[in-house]
Write a structure and sequence with these properties.
578 residues, mainly alpha, five-stranded mixed sheet, 5 strands, 4% strand, globular
């Protein structure tokens, strides 16, 4: 029997590895947000110092385990390991809810979402929180509870919003101990013991991360130069708040980004506020309207993780009568149905509390901007709901057929199929896998398999030609400073990001003199700046005012222009090279 279980586990792992391996071939690669963590793993290697706590020093330290492999192998292996850890954590949490085949189906459906939903620290935060709850069963001793708390702290160190999970469980357990002991020996029970060493280890890590903070100019929430950015650049929540609310202000006031950057609009909208509190005082009406709108966005985004809305919501014209009719009549009932099933399906009080905390984590996104990629806390809710409704359908079918005769193998298969239907219904995974498979069939026909690589624009595809062009540069101005700094053997003090350029003035203006041949002799410009550069952090504005005339100046000085496929162009001044 034990040999059979071992073989079954091996088959499950094999299926999961196969699914993760197939996902490597998707038309996707990590973005600048991911590269920021890899950049600071390099900075840690060189200096022993860390990125700000809000950007997870723990994850940058974790990436050191893979850096030695070199790019791109390091990124691919890290993706596989991190995704596998997350999938296995979900399986551990739900092992008492589903049998292995159905549980394997359930987690595989979430692989495409886990792949593209950056930043990747969210996956590890979810994994740690799931393992922490799985440890909290009736047989949990002091060590298991301490390990559970250590995992909750680790979750918050990967994604700081998960600190809510740790704090609520701390209060919850404290109240249970107080009620059980009736106030007697309360502090004695909570005093540190030898079994609490996992908590001491993670607290030691937390102290180390805060003490050994990097003084690098990119050590902030944006991993970029921020002298022209409003708000507290050391705070992730502040950075997200000012980026979103200025973005919405531009959309409501001007309708487009032409000539607009949040350096200027923050003065218009919020009187130059540099804290969230000051911004609310400056323009409470606008922020209140946006908060209400964000609540609606969060509900709509969450509902699109269910198969039925995911299939047709995007096909409804925005602002149409059907749009305003469908959402209150479909979105709200579906969300109520999902939440009802989740809380009915939770088997323990700890699981119900965990699901409630995940709802809080989802709604915490309304303070900035709800996005699909921030919806990792929705996964435990949807999986628990799928289990409950699936069991309901299965029980109904079994009662119906057993009353009319013998429960045959065929009837058992139908019962299991009803469970599978519920799992598929409470996930958008079938649509994501279908889209991915269409791309892979096209790749197979064209004979162009690529691992973790986008097609139209790709930093991976352009890495080698860029590296050859800039290897002798004294100073490089680029939009892709994170990627270049993370993976190319260029000294970091030779790399400059375009965000140090102000979103006003012009090249030659005394307000900024950073674009000088003796300082910057190489400029890299992506096709995205020219085509899509408008945004609340307006790269197109900086290109028009400074980069374009400076590139023309370099050419007059004898610089050469190189077209880089799947990237853009480079202007390289050969004069004065060693």
């Amino acid at each position: 029997m034990s040999r059979y279980l071992t073989r079954q586990r091996a088959r499950v792992l094999g299926v999961i590895f196969l699914a993760l391996g197939v996902s490597l071939l998707a038309h996707w690669e990590p973005s600048q947000e991911s590269w920021g963590y890899w950049l600071f793993s390099r900075i840690f290697n060189e200096t022993g110092q860390f990125i700000i706590p809000g950007r997870s020093p723990l994850y940058s330290l974790y990436l050191v385990l893979f850096r030695w492999m070199g790019y791109p192998l390091s990124v691919s292996v890290e993706y596989l390991v991190t995704s596998l850890l997350t999938v296995l954590a979900l399986m551990v949490l739900f092992r008492e809810y589903l049998n292995r085949p159905l549980l394997t189906l359930a987690v595989i459906l979430w692989i495409p979402f886990l792949q593209i939903s950056e930043p990747p620290v969210q996956k590890l935060a979810l994994a740690c929180s799931c393992l922490a709850i799985a440890l909290r069963n009736k047989e949990a001793d002091r060590f298991r509870m301490s390990l559970s708390y250590a995992l909750l702290i680790l979750a918050s160190m990967f994604r700081n919003t998960y600190s809510v999970c740790f704090l609520i469980f701390l209060v919850w357990d404290g109240w249970k101990v107080f009620r059980e002991k009736k106030g007697k020996n309360f502090f004695k029970v909570l005093s540190p013991q030898g079994a609490d060493w996992p908590i001491l280890v993670v607290l030691g890590l937390l102290t180390w991360f805060n003490v050994a903070q990097s003084a690098h100019r990119w050590n902030n929430a944006h991993s970029a130069s921020t002298q022209w950015f409003p708000g507290d650049s050391k705070s992730l929540s502040s950075a997200a708040f000012f980026q979103h609310y200025n973005d919405e202000y531009i959309a409501h006031t001007y309708g487009n980004y032409e000539g607009k950057d949040f350096y200027q609009t923050n003065n218009e909208a919020f009187h130059g506020a540099d804290t969230i509190q000051a911004a609310f005082i400056a323009n409470p009406g606008f922020i209140a309207r946006e908060l209400v709108g964000n609540c609606k966005r969060a509900l709509i985004i969450a509902s699109k993780f269910i198969l039925l809305p995911a299939m047709f919501y995007d096909k409804i014209p925005k602002g149409s009568h059907l749009w305003y009719l469908v959402h209150p009549l479909v979105t709200l009932p579906l969300m109520a149905m999902m939440l009802y099933g989740a809380f009915r399906g939770a088997k323990t009080a700890d699981m119900r509390l965990f699901l409630g905390i995940n709802i809080l984590l989802i709604f915490s996104t309304i303070l900035a901007l709800p996005k699909e990629r921030y919806m990792h806390p929705l996964i435990p809710l949807l999986m628990t709901s799928a289990c409950w409704y699936g069991q309901l359908l299965k029980s109904f079918w079994e009662r119906m057929v057993s009353s009319s005769g013998k429960l045959t193998r065929w009837n058992r298969f139908i019962a299991q199929s009803m469970m599978a239907f519920s799992i598929v219904f409470f996930s958008q995974g079938t649509l994501s896998w279908a889209g991915m498979m269409r791309d892979l069939v096209k790749d197979w026909r064209q004979g162009e398999w690529k691992v973790l690589e986008s097609r139209e624009y790709s930093e991976k595809a352009s890495k080698q030609p860029i590296e050859l062009l800039i290897k002798n540069c004294h100073g490089i101005m680029t939009e892709n400073h994170r990627f270049i700094g993370a993976f190319m053997p260029i000294p970091l003090n030779h790399i400059y990001d375009i965000w140090e350029i102000p979103p006003f003035g012009y090249w030659g203006d005394p307000v900024y003199d950073g674009l000088r041949p003796e300082r910057i002799d190489c400029v890299l410009v992506t096709s995205n700046i020219v085509k899509y550069g408008d945004g609340v952090t307006n790269s197109r504005l900086r290109y028009d005012l400074y980069l374009k005339p400076y590139m023309e100046h370099l050419q007059q000085q004898g610089a050469k222009v190189y077209a880089i496929e799947q990237y853009g162009q480079a202007v390289i001044l050969e004069k004065g090279r060693d």
